[in-house]
Amino acid sequence: MIEESENALNENKQELILPVLPLKNVVLFPKLALPLSVGREASRAAVEEAIRSHEGELILVAQRDPSVENPGPADLHRFGTRAKIRKVLRTSGATMELIVAGLERVGILEVQTGGAYLRAVAEPMPLLADHSPEEKALETALFELAAKAIERINPQAAEQISRLLESADDPQQTMHLLATAFSLDLDKQQSLLDSTSLKEALKLAVKHISEEIHILEMRQKIVSEAQEEMSKEQREYVLRRQMKAIQQELGEDDPAKAETEELRKRLSETELPEEARKEAEREFRRFERLPDQSPERHVLRTWLELVLELPWNKQTEDNLDIARARGILNDDHYGLEDVKERILEHLGVLQRNPGAKAPILCFVGPPGVGKTSLGQSIARALGRKFERMSVGGLHDESELRGHRRTYIGAMAGRLIQAMRRAGANNPVLMLDEIDKLGRDFRGDPAAALLEVLDPEQNSTFRDNYLDLQFDLSKVMFITTANSLDTLPQPLLDRMEVIRLAGYSEEEKVAIANKYLIPRQLKETGLSPEQVSFPEDGLRKLISSYTREAGLRNLERSIGRLCRKAALRFAEGREQALAMSPEVIVDLLGPETFLPEPARQNLPPGVATGLAWTPAGGDVLYVEATLLPKGKGLTLTGQLGEVMQESARAAQSYLWSHAEQFQIDPQVFSEAGVHVHVPAGAIPKDGPSAGITAAVALASLYTKRPARPDTAMTGEITLTGRVLPIGGVKEKVLAARRAGVKHVVLPKANQKDLRDLPEHVRQEMEFHFVERIEDVFRLTIPGLVETAEPLAAV
């Protein structure tokens, strides 16, 4: 009676109380059948209860997490399907095989626990249709997708799915059938079951099934392309077999034989020197006798190909038009007159004697002055091929001279390979960074260059791999170096050294306007109308942001300004931008270098000197002060040994001539002297500060200030002679930048004035001296009586 009243109550409220069968990875839709394997104990109990008490009906609900073995109420979705068990198969194990049919969609109101299985209180919740135009459109789209799906699904299942779709009399059944046929993942299937209306479910179905059909089409396309590729490989295989059969019919079935014939033909057509031809023919006969699979055959073939590719007798014709060559050199480089004159001299010699040996030049200078690019200009001016090889850091002598063929993987050296690439026996060959050659247990590359860079020996150069004499005498070798200190003297003796000094500020301005600015404007896509560089702005950039002898940092700074200008225009600027000093400081930030101007007044004990630096020269102030009751000479400012010796020599000279210069001799023994050269963090060395130290000490001992408008450089001896020094151009340009108008130089350096630009010689006065007394007469007024005034140049 109790059970009958409960069923009557359920019918009034349309509620159902049925056993629950949780599903792990699948969703059962209404009006569809589903085979299941039931193995969990609670699930088996639910099935038994459904068969026993509910005429085989139960509720199938998907789990939220398939990995949960004993799901509770919180682990189940809110919507499921009331189903009826159609068939049961009990196996000998613990698994039951079922076929269940979905009856209707139900909403789970409550899940009851406490027994051997879960029970659910549920009520039917069918998806309601609103018969709106949008719903009708979705139904049409769904049926079109169904038709398209039949074409895409594999042929075995296409017929079955087609029959099922034809039997489906409503869009909801079609939707569920397609979701099952495409095996949508669990979340997508459950989303269809969770929909609040038929229209929402149709939207989701159209979306999900469209994605699956797209994926299926892509998969089929990939499979089709793979099959086409396989067909192509099979076709190539068949064609190769056919080609082999044709070659057999024509008697050309041996590829090795064809290769041999090709080498024989090339050997007969190539013009070789007598020695090279004899050796090549001998090696070719060995090559013919070797079996195809012999490793030595490959070695011989590589050697023969190198011999046949080398330009033994091929050479380019020199263009001896001196006016054209001068124009090319002037167009490519500003200044560098010594180099240009030397190349034009060689052209003049070749006009008179076409067989003249090419010079071996060595360009020495600081980085960025144009040493490497000069080689390309020279080759263009001569009309020759150009090859460049960097030898900086080279340790292995075999890299230059090659490896012997007895070694596995042997190859020719870089010189022979460069000749093969050039394709002519008279190229311009540049050996870059020759001062950075290494040396270790593998040999000394510098020693290997002794033969290469000797015009009397390189006509019979023999590479270890080639092992034949190759004439390098027609090659124009150009080497570059930043310093000659590391080069062996025998190697240096073989080269004609041409020094490239740094550029003056005027030269840098001219080069920037002619070369650097147009190049950077082109790189950044700007026009001269948009960005201009006034001369005052360029001078500000050169003096305050770059301190170098060359031009690399200047070009980088110009490039930075152009990039910043390009950004301004990209952000909407329309007005032209002039790189004035103020604009440059605004774009690049504070000045990197602050050149020290000439001091207006010098106290006793301070003298103005000049120093050579890799950045192009600088003004150097030597300061001296007495140390009462001190002893000896103290030197600071990171002075090198030579510079310290110059200061001691200056003090010794003054001590020995104290009476001549009206100095109390007691001061030398009763007080010490401290000599300091500012910029103490920068190492300094060299003998050229000798007369500067002597003037500073003489000014200190006599308490007479030196002239602030006069700078000096020169080496001093204990007898008071002034000896010549180097770097005159760089030192004079540094004095000019600082505003110094008078420069004292050794008499022997008078010849070096010709290296200075004409406008510099006109602006400044130069005084040439032979003895320290002449220096004192020019720099410390009243110290030495002037018998005859020294003439200024």
Keywords:
793 residues; alpha/beta; elongated
Any overview of this molecule?
With 793 residues, the protein is of the alpha/beta class. Helices cover 45% and strands 17% of the residues. The chain is built from 27 helices and 24 strands. The strands form seven sheets. It has a five-stranded mixed barrel. Strands 8-9-12-7-13 form a five-stranded parallel β-sheet, sandwiched between helices. Strand 5 (96-112) and strand 6 form a beta hairpin. Mean pLDDT is 83; it is low at 1-13.
Write the layout of secondary structure elements.
Elements: H1 2-13, E1 16-23, E2 33-38, H2 41-53, E3 57-62, E4 79-90, E5 96-112, E6 119-124, H3 133-152, H4 155-167, H5 171-181, H6 186-194, H7 198-250, H8 255-269, H9 274-289, H10 295-309, H11 322-332, H12 337-352, E7 361-364, H13 371-382, E8 386-390, H14 398-401, H15 414-422, E9 428-432, H16 445-452, E10 461-462, E11 469-470, E12 476-481, H17 489-493, E13 496-499, H18 505-524, E14 531-532, H19 535-545, H20 552-570, E15 577-578, H21 581-588, E16 606-611, E17 618-628, E18 633-636, H22 641-656, H23 666-670, E19 671-676, H24 690-702, E20 710-712, E21 715-716, E22 722-723, H25 728-737, E23 742-746, H26 758-763, E24 765-769, H27 772-779
Parallel strand pairs: 1-3, 7-12, 7-13, 8-9, 9-12, 14-15, 18-19, 20-23, 23-24
Antiparallel strand pairs: 1-6, 2-5, 3-4, 4-5, 5-6, 10-11, 16-17, 17-19, 21-22
Helix pairs in contact: 3-4, 3-5, 3-7, 5-7, 6-7, 8-9, 9-10, 11-12, 11-13, 18-19, 18-20, 19-21, 22-24, 24-27
